[in-house]
Write the structure tokens for this entry.
Amino acid sequence: MAQDVIPGLEGIPIAESSISFVDGQASLLEYRGISIEELGEASTFEETSHLLLFGKLPTATELGQFKDELCHHRRLKYRIIDLIKCQKRPPWSPHSSACVEATNTTCPATS
């Protein structure tokens, strides 16, 4: 008895999620019950992030606090800034690997 080969994960449910819903046949993607189109048109990155993390869109006060917290946590320490400055300056070529090398050096140092 031969089995049909299904390419990739087509038609195979992976897990149920309260965060997202995907229906590839109907071209639907929802986060917490809100369509991705609606979020893309009416929500900011911070609002959508809050929705994903906390399960609801933020109030104005919550959004302000969340933005402040995000801003605080994305600051770079002076040692990281110095490390970035020490990297060789990339030549003005779209095929240069210097940017990738600088990123590979700097990113591990941030943790």
